[in-house]
Amino acid sequence: MKKNLKKQNITQLLIALGIILLINYISSNKYFRLDLTSDNRYTLSDATHHILDSLNDVVYIEIYLDGEMPIGFQRMQKSITELMDEFRVIAGDNIQFTFVNPSESSDESKRNAIYQDLYQRGLDPTNVKDRDEEGGMVEKMLFPGAILSYADKENPINLLVNNPGLSAEMNLNNSIQALEYEFIDAIRKITATKRKKVAFIEGQGELDEYSTGDITRALSEYYNIDRVTIKEHLHILEPYDVVIIAGSKEKFSEKSKFIIDQYIMNGGKVLWFIEAVNISMDSLSTGNGTSFAFMNDVNLGDQLFKYGVRVNPNIIQDIQCAVIPINTAIAGQQAKFTPAPWLYFPLLNAPNSNSITKNLNLLKSEFPSSIDIVGDKSGVKKQVILYSSTGSKLLNVPLMVSLSEVKDQSDPRSFDKPLNPIAVLMEGEFESVFTNRPLKEITKGQDFTFKEKSSSTKMIVVSDADIIRNDVKQRADGVFLSPLGYDRYTQQTYGNKEFVMNAVHYLVDESGVLDIRSREFKLRILDKEKVKKDKTAWQFVNTVLPVLIILLFGFYTSYKRRKKYT
């Protein structure tokens, strides 16, 4: 009996050892991860896997986030380390990374030289306050960014999201949420061998190459950019992945509309910036401070209506708006300019539910119009991606606009048209506006196959071309282009450039890289007021109570033993 029991125990031991060895062998040869977080923060997207798998050379990543830092940036550093480790699991030695402390040198001149070099290479500094070893507050300069090197190319990325409307904790959390997208987007850009093509349409009074210079420069880092005049060429748009129509002032001919329509029917994507009302700040400032706003009909209304939207000939006023400088000096005295809210320049909201607009700063607009979503086509999905605030109203044109309005006291109750759509994303199969219309005069015998319905495609319609327009200044040394979205009066940069970049990426991209931006990590922040109020109680629970429980358990055990054995 004892021999059988001993034999059985040995057998069980050998089986257990065999199972352990098998598990170790499988785990050492087969990679797997278990992400048990509710928001899947440690699970990389399919697009990330595809890009990292396709690397055929080493990407070197220098991350300038090391040394003594506030706790928030330490959390960001830890998240970057975890992300880089996940990247290396997929890409192997093709991902090499290191953390660098730009403030490591004790020599101030050397530190300043490093700071200057990083700034010139494209990294933005940020000043933070932290406590030193003696408990005092010190100000430190950090460069929360990275520089990627691949072959002979270099690409900087700034990792800190800075939305003035959010708290520091929210900005840091949004920065951590965006880490995967920022790194993968940079890797995709620096390793791309074949570039897609984007065209700006000309010929109908659109914004020129200077007014769209800053966004053109930003887009050219990803795509080949051309400026195209349609004229008589039916197939002229075929080579392009995205077409941008920005601020037309003259009417489109039926043939130009037909070329754009058939481009869409064949799967082309269009980013429309429509000016439904003709007025600008230049017309106000060059006159006596007044200007007439009237309808700007460029002959696209029927086409856009067929696709599913209508841009209305009106102007949105919004309490949430940008400022303009107003001379408040008494007549005869030296001019004194004071910033004042200008209701015709709404600051637009962007929903977090879309990958194009997630975590965007407010966008600056100038004299925007409202958009109506029309039609009920099940094959087209429509989503509003920019809208005015809850304190907005609509003014129909024709309308006289005067700079003196900035001094008027507006009745808040009159702003009763909230959340007006300014930009609409449409995806699906569109119907041609030229169906059942004679085409001989348009095609004039040219070889062309007409399509009545598109393949699956997408477009974005925006009711204000100023969203894509940068300021242009003529100087003695040449033309100076302001960054898109930069407000020289408040020295704040709005989210215009990021919106346009994301919109083009979304229209072009078929791999789903931009969808990474829609990921959301839950920010679990302690309630500071509650912590302060219940501080003593929680200290008691965490320090004194465990000791009391152990002591009571010891007394109870001792009492039971004495009672049992005495």
- Please name the CATH architecture of the largest domain: 3-Layer(aba) Sandwich
CATH fold-level assignment of the largest domain: Rossmann fold
What is the number of domains? 4
How does the helix and strand content classify structurally? alpha+beta
Strand content: 15-25%
The average pLDDT score comes to 85
* Biggest β-sheet: strands ordered side by side in the sheet: 8-7-9-10-23-22-19
Structural summary, described in words:
There is one protein chain. This protein is an alpha+beta fold. The chain folds into four domains: 1-27; 46-190, Glutaredoxin (3-Layer(aba) Sandwich), CATH 3.40.30; 196-518, Rossmann fold; 528-555, no CATH class. The chain is built from 14 helices and 27 strands. It has a seven-stranded mixed sheet, with helices on both faces. Strands 2-1-5-6 form a four-stranded mixed sheet. A hairpin with a 4-residue loop joins β26 and β27 (492-493). α3 (71-91) packs parallel to α5 (168-177) and α7 (213-219) crosses α12 (496-508). The longest helix has 31 residues, at 535-565. The chain is globular, with a radius of gyration of 31 Å. The mean pLDDT is 85.
Task: Give descriptors for this structure.
566 residues; Glutaredoxin; Rossmann fold; 7-stranded mixed beta sheet; globular
Short summary of the structure?
With 566 residues, this protein is of the alpha+beta class. It is built from 14 helices and 27 strands.
